[in-house]
Design a protein that fits this description.
Length: 343
């Protein structure tokens, strides 16, 4: 979508689709071992995902992945988006097919999942995390602005989920920290950007955030990849960004919106503001495969040197059995987990 706009500042930019591995009410980072957890997530990547994957190398426990790079057994997960109708019922919002392109083309679009980015502006000096590394970005309980654009939404005003090429979370006229307030004729794009500095020692921390940090200079987006890391977190890791295009077009009829005209979308943890957007990451690339890509200047999209890829048909056969059996796609009277204290 906007690779061309970033090419001058991002020497290596892996961009690849990962269909859903499972949609489930699990969160092995925040609620390890808890079945069910407090709210629904969509999970992509390796089939090693489970409620108790709190330590260890997931690249050795997974046997397949939904990601186009077939040696990326990492797991990535985000909250789901729901529409709340005027009558108070909820419906899960599907992902738009234009969000994901296998082989970096528009001829083989898939529906449901996440577009994953790994960006490095300094080949040779950006390190892949170590096996067992994991992190969380965002706070599901936040309901006010943070003003750092570490996550954002873009309202597509035209059809086909796109048309713009500007980098995510970089344009105050296009991007918002909160949900868009009006009808988005082409859907809503969601972007979440992880920190790019690591302490180099700890694979995790009690809050899953303290072992990583954002640069001390520049904004938290692709354009600040050259920003200085704090002395406490001197190891530069790639900028990981998750992107989901939510197909809100079936709900564009404002007659079914809340009677007061307020925006009708809500994240799965019950957040009607959008400020609580969050994502989790568990590193699971095989051996030094990711490092080879980070050290290779000029990699763009879903091809990089000798990195192995797979076709979409194979990728979609990789899945995990649901642990929590509940209605996912019908109209709901309450959000799944709304009877539990959100964490």
């Amino acid at each position: 979508m906007y690779g061309e706009a970033l090419a001058a500042g991002a020497t290596t930019m892996l961009r690849f689709g990962c269909p859903q591995t499972v949609i489930d009410r699990l969160d092995p980072l925040v609620n390890p071992g808890q079945i069910p957890s407090g709210h629904v997530h969509q999970i992509v990547g390796g089939n090693g995902f489970n409620a108790t994957m709190t330590t260890g190398d997931v690249s050795t426990t997974a046997t397949c992945t939904t990601c186009e790079f077939s040696e990326d057994f990492s797991n990535y997960w985000t909250a789901n988006l729901y529409f709340k109708a005027r009558n108070g019922t909820y419906k899960r919002v599907q992902q738009g097919s234009a969000a994901l392109q296998f082989s970096d083309t528009f001829s083989n679009k898939i529906q449901g999942g996440t577009l994953v980015y790994y960006v490095s502006a300094d080949p040779g000096n950006v390190k892949q995390p170590k096996p067992g590394f994991r992190m969380l970005v965002g706070d599901p309980l936040r309901r006010t602005a943070k003003n750092k654009m570490q996550s954002c939404y873009r309202c597509y005003s035209g059809p086909n989920f796109g048309g713009d090429v500007s980098a995510p979370c970089s344009d105050a006229k296009l991007d918002t920290e909160a949900f868009p307030t009006g009808v988005c004729k082409g859907g809503i794009r969601s972007n979440i950007l992880f920190p790019t500095c690591w302490d180099g020692v700890n694979l995790d921390s009690p809050n899953h955030e303290d072992h990583v940090a954002y640069p001390t200079t520049g904004a938290a987006n692709f354009l600040s990849l050259g920003g200085a890391c704090p002395s406490t977190h001197p190891v530069r890791i790639p900028q990981i960004m998750l992107e989901v295009v939510w197909d809100t077009t079936p709900f564009n009829d404002k007659s079914i919106w809340p009677a007061d005209g307020s925006q009708p979308f809500v994240l799965s943890q019950g957040d009607t503001t959008g400020y609580g957007q969050h994502a989790d990451y568990v590193f699971g690339w095989k051996d030094q495969v990711l490092q080879k890509a980070l050290d290779t200047a000029g990699c763009m999209g879903a091809k990089c040197g000798t990195l192995a890829t797979q076709d979409i048909t194979t990728a979609k056969t990789c899945n995990v059995k649901k642990a929590v059996q509940e209605n996912q796609d019908g109209w709901l009277t309450t959000l799944p987990g709304s009877d539990m204290a959100q964490k």
